[in-house]
Amino acid sequence: MADVLAVAEARDGVVQGVSREVVTVARGLADALGGRVDAAVAGGRGAGEAAAALGEQGADRVLAIDGAEQVDVRAVAVAEVVRGGDYGAVVFAATGPGRDLAPRVAARLGVALLTDVVAVEIDGGRVVVTRPVFAGKALARVRALGAPALLSIRPNVFPVSDAPRAAQVEHVALSGEASAGGYRVVGFEESAGAALDVSEAAIIVSGGRGLKGPENWHLLADLRDALGETAALGASRAVVDAGWRPHAEQVGQTGKTVTPKLYFAVAISGAIQHLAGMRTSGVIVAVNRDAEAPIFGVADYGIVGDAFEIVPELATAVRKLREQQG
Fold it and tell me: How many other C-beta atoms can be found within 10 angstroms of the C-beta atom of residue 100?
């Protein structure tokens, strides 16, 4: 089993950016195993043709699964693709949709699922992954004993690389087994403003209870806007529980696990539950009045002071720097 299947994500015919990371990882595994990369995608009309662009990251073939709109149906279809191929590994994204789909596929195949992977390699012909454990305080190196090896990768960890190929699109018909069980999806509603999701953002500006109220969130929004389109707003659990910000922005053990290139922790003390969701960020900048706050223990840069004074200064400095860079 030398081939690798990359399970791409698509919505309304548009392939999501994280799929490029999934295919990049799959390409690396396939090269080590001496096989090809197939990219399976289900996401409405046109998704397969759009996914052909994943050939830039090394997909040799795109399998467009038509009609698999619901996750149970998609799980059956992906499992069928795996059984019908010669796959040594199947790679998912550890996103909301990926966390919904991957366990269902693993259960149908009867194999283990390695989740939230931050590093992967082939050792002795088997897939070996590294993943955070104990709320991110340690890293475990795990060897996949089952076949194929199923794994989900943490977004924004693996840099996208180009390995251009002319990916051919093949349409996969669903079998009679693929049917929804006990429910049906009647529609989707976009969140207000369709803001960039924190799990996909390259830069996150998060705020905590030290901002004193939702009326002060404009300070973080101003810094986010200064940083550009790849920035998103985040929040601690205390803020979300207080109703200041929506749950979609919550970062932490009971929220979303994020790995942006740059993370601002503003007026966040750094409870272990919050650190579990962001400590693997590339660069962490902490702003807090308490010099003994735990957040400074994981921060690359720390500013001890009043966030109401510092954050506006940061936003102004970022804008000036971007203007100088053109």
Answer: 14
Instruction: Calculate the average pLDDT of the chain.
Output: 89
DSSP 32-49: HHT--EEEEEESSTTHHH
Q: Is 66 exposed, middle or buried (0-12, 13-18, 19+ CB in 10 A)?
A: middle
**Alpha-carbon distance 54 to 16, whole Å?**
11
Q: Answer for the pair 42, 72: CB distance below 8 angstroms, yes or no.
A: no
The structure's pTM equals 0.81
State how far the Cα of 226 lies from the Cα of 317, in Å rounded to an integer.
9
Distance, CA of 279 to CA of 298 (rounded, Å): 7
DSSP reduced 3-state for 306: coil
pLDDT tens-place string over residues 27-60: 999 999 999 999 998 866 677 778 888 888 989 9
Confidence of residue 237 (pLDDT cuts 50, 70, 90): very high
d(CA 231, CA 208): 17
User: Helices 307-325 and 218-227 sit at what angle, rounded to 10 degrees?
Assistant: 20
DSSP 207: E
